[in-house]
Write a structure and sequence with these properties.
The chain is an all-alpha fold. 78% of the residues lie in helices and 0% in strands.
Amino acid sequence: MSRNFLVTRIVDLAIVLIGVSMLTFLMIRLVPGDAVAIMLGANAEVTVERMNELRARLGLDQPIPVQYAQWLGNALRGDFGNSLWTGKPVVQEIAVHLPPTLQLAGLSLLLGAGLAVPLGVAMARLRGGWRETALQIASVVGLTVPSFWLGIMMILALTSLAPELQLLGYVPFTEDPAGNIARFLLPAIALALPILANLARLVRSAMLDALAQDYVRTARAKGVSERSVLFKHALRNALIPFVTSVGIMTGYLLGGAIVVEQVFAIPGLGRLILGAISERNYPLLQTAILLVTSGFVLVNFAVDLLYAIIDPRVRLEADQ
């Protein structure tokens, strides 16, 4: 990988992260509601002077650009502020809720992307038959079914059939590995199904395009086995759009996990963000959202690099 390509992508990454931090900060400040009023509550003893004093102590009386500059300066030094409600560093609170979200997103991505490749290849291989039609219908259903609805249906079905199963909540993997996996399996399936359907259709389409190319016909004319044609020649080119879409799907996972965590009572980052919104906990909310969006940007940065490794033409375009 050339130095110019890498430097260009890193500069782009820095610009995007600064833009994301500005938008995140501005949008949170524009949310209706006053954090100070919510913190003090509907108490008759609360005076305007008391509210102004607390607002000044929290730095909320400053203009938004000044607040952003102070927050960014502190963030660059690793200080993202303290929670308005608990007084604890927001990094500390996020660190407690981040592992369940990462585990849910990672397991969902593993299921969705891992099964999409063989399923997409099978759909391309079975083109024209009833089995491909059945798989196409199943993929459309998978795309249209909301993850939260599927999660609720699975909970209702399994609690009726096997009420002794513990399906909700969270147990750390280090304390109970089997219980941890059992509680994450259903939400991971609910979250992975739309990804699986989407990526499988993408792989099928890319495989059909690749199988129609001259180099595939040449390979077949030389007597190369159909297995080698599919997995050695066609699949490599079909993986280029697949890798790009996996990066986009990762962003979907982080957003979809918020709803699924609510359904399955998983104390992850999604539930933390929803609580911070209702409490107008600005430092916690902006840091958590910045973390999610930065994760999405960094994943796409990694996909960009991987894309250049798979397809050398991308590197050449960047160098030019």
